[in-house]
Amino acid sequence: SAVISQKPSRDICQRGTSLTIQCQVDSQVTMMFWYRQQPGQSLTLIATANQGSEATYESGFVIDKFPISRPNLTFSTLTVSNMSPEDSSIYLCSVGGTQVVTEAFFGQGTRLTVV
Amino acid sequence: LAKTTQPISMDSYEGQEVNITCSHNNIATNDYITWYQQFPSQGPRFIIQGYKTKVTNEVASLFIPADRKSSTLSLPRVSLSDTAVYYCLVGVNTNAGKSTFGDGTTLTVKP
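Above: the input entities. Below: the structure tokens describing the complete assembly.
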């Protein structure tokens, strides 16, 4: 299993500012994933963060808006840039399992409110 | 990735068995079926995964018919604490962290 810690757990931010969310895993993993969960909605994959290379973004998400860092095999950050109220969501990081029955492990999420 | 269809919501009472069915008509040969549970203000949590027939663990059972075009998550004797959103996912299990979540089923367990 993997234990994932996210910081901050929640924040209220002014529009036009940026917030960086940190994700720490208790074991080394090749890939980390960032998701967005808008209020009352399901999860949507934002991007895949690989150590040593640029993140791979899903359709509808761009690096200028959601820059990602992956400095080592246990840590990643997601920045939500130039925020607007539409960015108010829960942001979660995830890693894949390594066992035969492969499962994903998720952090508790960062609840972001943009005012 | 195969699209999944689940009921939007279900109600149950404590002590009952709950069955949530997921349709995935376009499931591919290499796809596995995985179910997650999500409580408010928490990330999703893995419940069970299977490829065919029946899988059982300490939490739930997963029934998959021979054509694999659907699957049923069975929760025995639910309690109030089982109130959550349940997601059915279909995909290759070698990259579980990269998942496509459907709309999920909101299960409400009543006393």
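Note for the figure: The CA atoms of residues 1 and 99 of chain A lie 8 Å apart.
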